[in-house]
Amino acid sequence: MLSTTTNNATPGKTLSEIVRSKLGEILESSDFIKFVALVTMDGFTISSAMRDNINVNPKWLGALIVSSIKNLEGNIRKALGNASLSELVISLGQDMLIIKSMGKLALLIIADKSLGIDFIMYEVEEGLRDLMISLELSNNSF
Question: What is the 3-state secondary structure (H, E, C) of the chain?
Fold first, then answer.
């Protein structure tokens, strides 16, 4: 359980605190990043961080995104055969929603389009890598 298990790499911190800290680091990496969340692929929002100027319900968004990804991935598989959806970018007016799934987890980020997709995707990859290291997970444990 995230709130009670401690991590050997960060003594004294719960896994939940480590996740919140890492999400906060991603959020603070740019003023253009407005929201970040880590969700399970069954729709549970583990943790999230957001700026004051954004109105998002993290639990609702996490559940909605996961069910949408599963639906879209199923339809893509029907049309294209053995395909998997690991990254998705959705335009939201002047913002974009980026979803990066890795096994049983997904990282969601809402950012201003002016930031540039390359920078945001770099932050997503780095964020997931840092979370995996901090939580002592390998690609295979997802």
Answer: CCCCCEECCEEEEEHHHHHHHHHHHHHHCCCCEEEEEEEECCCCEEEEEECCCCCCCHHHHHHHHHHHHHHHHHHHHHHHCCCCCCEEEEEECCEEEEEEEECCEEEEEEEEHHHCHHHHHHHHHHHHHHHHHHCCCCHHHC
